[in-house]
Design a protein that fits this description.
Elements lengths: L13 H10 L2 H8 L3 H15 L4 E4 L2 E4 L1 H24 L6 E7 L1 H8 L3 H7 L3 E7 L13 E6 L9 E11 L2 H4 L16 E5 L11 H7 L9 E5 L2 H9 L5 E5 L3 H5 L11 E11 L7 H22 L1
Parallel strand pairs: 3-4, 3-5, 7-8
Antiparallel strand pairs: 1-2, 5-10, 6-9, 6-10
Helix pairs in contact: 1-2, 1-3, 1-4, 2-3
Length: 311
């Protein structure tokens, strides 16, 4: 009697385990796999019974991996990712090539998505999936090919590719600038305006914060007419375009709106911030032609945008 060459766990249970370990949630894993929460829980229990050890710690309203779970997750995620990449390659060059990307909602909405039609015309076989989030996602754990991250030079990974830097300056709608009842000719005039604020921790104490800007303009004591607060940058810019107040514009994110006449910069002053946008490739992206083509396209678009702003 011959023994089996590989003593493998039940392979059909591994996708549920990988999803649960990645999201640390049976509910989110079920949503991803189109299973109920209880079905995922049963599959994890069966896997634990197979190994004879706990893979998760069931905490109050939370999950955590045990040491054994961490070890199994590392292997499972690597194997499933390799199978995914190999399967994509075997499906042939003519098939749609999936590319997953994470970036901030503001960058996705204001810079990337308006340019995607040009990508589609150049590379119609690239299937782009965008995960827009302000969270810094783990690329390998999330099976993500690329990230476009807003980061200081010191915090950027060594292998990251610089896309472009950023300048910050007040912007508003042309209609607001033409409002004779509330002229906007000098910084002190901001006291008659509604200031639009971006509420997220990284903005505080930076050039994305109105407090820093008002101090730089010499009107630190200024009290505006009112304030509106937003958690997403693209929503704040849409409010500025609609004439609801004055926002801090970030070039190149607002460059297209400025060229289109949707926004204007009432003051000449701008500040170069000590952060930039970087392209970060996941280890999963190695050898994928669609990733190389997408990064090359991104860099061309960044250079073209810089030329347009300079011109």
């Amino acid at each position: 009697m011959h023994s089996k060459r590989y003593a493998l766990p039940p392979l059909d249970l591994l996708p549920a385990f990988e999803a649960a370990a990645r999201t640390l949630s049976f509910t989110r894993a079920g949503q991803e796999l189109f299973l109920t929460q209880s079905a995922v829980s049963r599959q994890i229990k069966a896997l634990e019974e197979h190994f004879g050890c706990a893979l998760f710690e069931r905490l109050t309203r939370a999950l955590a991996l045990t040491d054994e779970g961490e070890e199994l997750y590392r292997v499972t995620a690597d194997v499933l990712a390799r199978l995914h990449v190999t399967g994509e390659r075997l499906r042939g060059a003519g098939a749609a090539r999936l590319l997953t990307l994470t970036t901030t909602p503001g960058f996705a909405s204001l810079w990337l998505i308006p340019r995607l039609p040009r990508l589609m015309s150049e590379h119609p076989n690239i299937d782009v999936r965008i995960a827009a989030s302000n969270d810094v996602l783990n690329l390998e754990r999330g099976l993500i090919d690329l990230a476009i991250r807003y980061s200081s030079t010191e915090a950027a990974p060594r292998e990251a590719i610089s896309l472009f830097g950023e300048e910050v300056f007040p912007v508003c709608s042309p209609a607001l600038l033409r409002d004779a009842a509330r002229p906007l000719r000098e910084p002190r005039d901001l006291e008659r305006q509604v200031l639009l604020h971006l509420d997220y921790p990284a903005a505080r104490g930076s050039w994305l914060d109105w407090g820093s800007w008002l101090a730089a303009l010499g009107v630190a004591d200024l009290a505006p007419a009112a304030a509106l607060h937003f958690t997403q940058y693209d929503q704040m810019i849409q409010a500025a375009i609609a004439g609801q107040g004055v926002a801090l514009g970030r070039s190149p994110l607002v460059a297209q709106s400025l060229r289109a006449g949707q926004l204007v910069a009432p003051f000449a002053r701008s500040e170069v911030v000590p952060r930039a946008y970087y392209v970060v490739e996941s280890a999963l992206a190695a050898g994928k032609p669609q990733v190389r083509a997408f990064v090359d396209w991104l860099l061309r678009e960044a250079r073209a945008g810089a030329r347009e702003e300079a011109g």
